[in-house]
């Protein structure tokens, strides 16, 4: 691959790629005691062979193909240049957790995929991907929605809040998060981000819900561990403080 | 890796006229979405792959609940939560409010629209799983065979296809004599809710009268039933998400304990919401009470033809009709 010949022209040097937890991490030997001479990462490991992901992506962009997708995610799109004649613009601004992020999103991408794979906010989980489990719940203008079944383009004008955005800037947990910890809400924890968002959405609209109102508002989130009473107790506890 | 939708062009028209133009241009390749809760499942399964997707959720013409004099009009892209929380509807049409509150889950009601709720496709598992059945253009029904799992399927008027209407608001709209306004190329026509839903005898591949190019713009509820007594009940396997096994919606006017006028409709037993005309005829002019309850139970499911696994719906219908009658006493 040519070494970023067009970077300067395209202004790509300045572009910050979003963090990608699947690829961006420090390499350390798994067990230092037996690692021996494997102090350096192996030449050809499981990562994109022979090149870094960033270099690869730059290459793709420079070659004029209209994908800026994570290489492992969007093979389906096969780099076909889809110039929408009068359809939506791919380059859009999304307001996520109070920040405006510019992202390049194909029309068929769901909000959950954008949040996780383009913005790197992997707190939002994709469970069923069919609006049937609630793990992907985020707030759009303070209303809980299933991000797996919403097109990113449909959320353009909304203020999106994910689980990363509910705690205070100094790291103090949101009352709902603290209450879930106090009431031992999470067991495996996979549904927790969705449960947190559903509860935050409820308390924004109705700060003093009755148990029945809380149960109803939380009914769109499955918990495979069956910790429903704990989550419900958490919501009621948070309602005293939120 | 999750299911990824096929590549399509997304259009967000700014006006109803623009949307009509787009639909005209793309014909059968166009697909209307608003909440998308039904559509995106089809797309992710790749059973439907329209080239042009027209998002009408942003159209001002399709949003909001207005008092139109002799009727209340609900824009088709009004979300079910908005309906649930509307004071105008709560005061006048609690039946529809109760029905809307029973749809799926809170998050789905927050983005799912009433227009989508009434025009969603059937939930027959065989059809949804991509079997080449009659409804999908094939030449067989996979739900009506000796070994098929058909506990959710139809009791009445099954013509080759045994699928049922999944909508919770549909029986309520039929009971309230709603009118559906459908726009096509700038011209608006209205169809009564009863005629809006069509069975397999009319067209086996569609659930509603909507054809390519049609946009459901508005649902009008005549004030005739404003403030009437109402009863809604939905029986489903789970309180949340699941579609009705049987649901019942009743609007009634009583005078001195006598039933003056009544309309009852059932969901989940037929391809369209089923008017229980026999129950209505029986109730009109009668005094609500245990006797009426018993009669309603007896006639509610008259004429039902059960499949292998849905016999339970027959007594269920009777019980729901009896409870509806009891609510008037």
Describe the structure.
The complex is a heterodimer of chains A (242) and B (329). Chain A is α+β, with helices and mostly antiparallel strands. Chain A has 3 domains: 1-78, no CATH class; 91-165, Beta-grasp domain (Ubiquitin-like (UB roll)); 175-239, [2Fe-2S]-binding domain (DNA polymerase, domain 1, Orthogonal Bundle), CATH 1.10.150.120. Helix content of chain A is 28%, strand content 10%. Chain A is built from 8 helices and 5 strands; from the N terminus they run αααββαβββαααα. Chain A is globular and about 50 Å long. In chain A, 38% of the residues are buried. Chain B has 329 residues and is α+β, with helices and mostly antiparallel strands. Chain B has a domain at 9-58: Uridine Diphospho-n-acetylenolpyruvylglucosamine Reductase, domain 2 (2-Layer Sandwich), CATH 3.30.43. Chain B is built from 13 helices and 12 strands. In chain B, the strands form 3 sheets. Chain B has a 5-stranded antiparallel β-sheet. Chain B has a 4-stranded antiparallel β-sheet with strand order 9-10-11-12. In chain B, strands 1-3-2 form a 3-stranded parallel β-sheet, with helices on one face. Chain B is globular, with a radius of gyration of 20 Å. The mean pLDDT of chain B is 96. Classes of the chains: A alpha+beta (242), B alpha+beta (329). Chain A binds chain B through residues 73-74, 76-77, 80, 82, 84-88, 106-110, 112-113, 126, 129-132, 134, 137, 143-146, 148-151, 153-154, 198, 216-217, 219-220, and chain B through 1-12, 33, 36-37, 40-41, 43-44, 52-53, 55, 57, 81, 104-108, 110-111, 239-241.
């Amino acid at each position: 691959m040519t070494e970023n010949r067009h970077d300067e022209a395209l202004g790509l040097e300045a572009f910050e790629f979003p963090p990608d937890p699947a690829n961006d991490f420090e390499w350390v030997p798994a067990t230092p005691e037996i690692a021996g001479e494997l102090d350096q990462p192996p030449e050809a490991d499981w990562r994109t062979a022979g090149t870094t992901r960033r270099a690869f992506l730059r290459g793709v962009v420079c070659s004029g193909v209209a994908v800026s997708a994570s290489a492992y995610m969007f093979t389906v799109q096969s780099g076909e240049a889809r110039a929408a004649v009068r359809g939506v613009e791919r380059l859009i601004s999304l307001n996520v957790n109070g920040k405006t992020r510019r992202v390049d999103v194909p029309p068929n991408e769901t909000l959950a995929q954008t949040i996780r794979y383009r913005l790197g906010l992997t707190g939002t989980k994709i469970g069923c991907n069919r609006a049937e489990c609630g793990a992907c719940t985020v707030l759009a203008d303070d209303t809980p929605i299933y991000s797996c079944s919403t097109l990113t383009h449909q959320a353009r004008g909304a203020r999106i809040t994910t689980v990363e955005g509910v705690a205070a800037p100094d790291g103090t947990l949101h009352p709902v998060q603290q209450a879930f910890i106090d009431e031992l809400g999470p067991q495996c924890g996979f549904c927790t981000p969705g449960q947190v968002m559903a509860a935050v959405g409820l308390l924004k609209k109705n700060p003093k819900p009755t148990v029945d109102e809380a149960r109803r508002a939380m009914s769109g989130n499955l918990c495979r561990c069956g910790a429903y009473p704990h989550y419900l107790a958490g919501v009621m506890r948070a309602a005293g403080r939120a | 890796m999750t299911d990824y939708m096929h590549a399509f062009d997304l259009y967000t028209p700014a006006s109803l006229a623009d949307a009509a133009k787009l639909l005209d241009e793309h014909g059968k390749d166009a697909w209307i979405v608003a909440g998308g809760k039904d559509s995106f499942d089809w797309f992710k399964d790749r059973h439907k792959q329209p080239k042009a997707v027209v998002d009408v959720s942003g159209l001002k013409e399709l949003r909001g609940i207005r008092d139109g004099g002799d009727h209340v009009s609900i824009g088709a892209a009004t979300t079910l939560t908005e309906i649930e929380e509307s004071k105008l509807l709560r005061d006048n049409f609690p039946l529809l409010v109760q029905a809307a509150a029973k749809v799926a889950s809170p998050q789905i009601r927050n983005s799912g629209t009433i227009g989508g709720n009434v025009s969603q496709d059937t939930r027959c598992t065989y059809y949804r799983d991509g079997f080449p059945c009659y409804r999908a253009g094939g030449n067989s029904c996979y739900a009506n065979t000796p070994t098929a799992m058909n506990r959710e399927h139809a009791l009445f008027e099954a013509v080759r296809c045994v699928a049922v209407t999944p909508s919770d608001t549909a029986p309520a709209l039929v009971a309230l004599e709603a009118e559906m306004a459908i726009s096509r190329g700038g011209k608006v026509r209205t169809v009564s809710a009863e005629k809006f839903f069509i069975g397999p005898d009319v067209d086996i591949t569609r659930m509603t009268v909507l054809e390519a190019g049609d946009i459901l713009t508005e649902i009008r509820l005549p004030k005739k039933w404003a403030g009437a007594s109402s009863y809604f009940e939905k029986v489903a396997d789970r309180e949340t998400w699941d579609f009705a096994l049987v649901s019942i919606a009743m609007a009634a006017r009583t005078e001195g304990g006598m039933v003056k006028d009544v309309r009852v409709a059932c969901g989940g037993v037929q391809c369209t919401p089923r008017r229980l005309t026999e129950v209505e005829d029986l109730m009109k002019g009668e005094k609500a009470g245990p006797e009426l309850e018993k009669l309603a139970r007896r006639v509610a499911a008259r004429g039902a033809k059960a499949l292998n696994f849905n016999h339970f719906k027959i007594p269920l219908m009777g019980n729901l009709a009896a409870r509806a009658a009891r609510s008037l006493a």
